[in-house]
Write the structure tokens for this entry.
Amino acid sequence: MPIRFFNTLSREIEDFTPIAPPLVKMYTCGPTVYNFAHIGNFRAYIFEDLLQRHLEGRGYQVHRVMNITDVDDKTIRNSRAAAQPLDQFTRTFKDSFFEDLRTLRIQPAADFPAATEPRYIERMIEMIQQLEHHGIAYQADDRSLYFRLSRFPDYGKLAHLDLDKLRPTGRVRNDDYEKENIGDFALWKAWDQADGDIAWDSPWGRGRPGWHIECSAMANAILGPELDIHCGGVDNIFPHHEAEIAQSESCTGKKFVRYWLHCAHLMVQGQKMAKSAGNFYTLRDLTAQGWTGREIRHTLISVNYRLPLNFTFDGLTAARAALARIDEWATRLTTLAAAENRASLHPLATSTLFQDALDDDLNISGALGHLFDTLRESNRLMDQGAFTPADARALINWWRNINQLLALDPDPSAIPDNIQSLLEARAHARAQKDWLASDTLRDTLLAQGWEVKDTKDGQRLTPRP
Ligand SMILES: [Zn+2]
């Protein structure tokens, strides 16, 4: 079965054929570093992480770019409120963003371009000059440059807006605007007092880029004029991605993006997340309450990306329980497998249903359903003594492949490597019927704070209470 994705542009499920396989050029809108990222942002980044891991598992080479918006209306407004220079202000949130990615086990993108890097500012200016040359960009009375909407009839296609009904109402200078205020949008904003000392030289005088041209320029500079996949949250569709298409395609004359993938909203306890509603959470808020990155990752990954995710504390508790089941099962398999080096071709271990589900527009709930079916079935077989050590070894390999995509290994602190080695040495000693060595290793483990019990499935390890 081919890999298929729902394309926001066509509103249809389409077979995935990149421009030059096995390469996949993927651009993902990154954080605006004016605050700590919230869990809704991370839902989108985890979806993109799963997408990349699955494509790589299927043999593609993914070149993913994630931009950092470190200058726009919001960063300037908040840095001024904090009375800090912009770069110092955004540095704090950039650093914490990368730390949060690690906590959530999100693979780093190949490139993290920041909008204020001189080479990207240069590219933004070049693109605006090109647009001006074609009569698409124009300088208005306020000295800012705007995109002439009437010159791009496809504007609104991604968000499926009917421009005839909406009637553009003039110019918009803000980075974000409602579709009721649709109009020529800002490409370059002439300096004004609210910008403080934030400004770059340009052919049109001192100023700063609009948010939308930042992404068009960074995508173009790193990945070229044509991308395979562009992702973001549904909030990005309008106006941001709509504007990116207008700018990029007007400059290059090429189709900017083949597949647009958007992740649905995250709700908290059934409501829209908002500071005013008291249900606004950053990752740090949750880890401070004792939830691990692994538990939060499981919660955010486990709902299909196009469905709204209702984030609840019950959901986190359920994630904790699901992970405990996986851990117990994996330990049971490891213990059983220790007695043999050979792997078998047990049918459970040869199933590709997990990956097949992901081929279908990244159907993670189907994939996880299959994982837990396998877990239940193999536990049942182990209960009956009908699963050999070789079967267990094969299933461990199967799980390793799947976990390349999920990244749900136990936290390293759970069972330290040296304890794991002692446990394996003991399983080996028992297989050799070397009871003296087995007892010595049990005592060593106990001295290090771990109690080992011998069950009919083999050893079971628990931290000593
Ligand atoms: Zn963007």
Summary: The longest strand covers residues 184-190. The chain has a mean pLDDT of 94. The two ends are 50 Å apart (CA to CA).
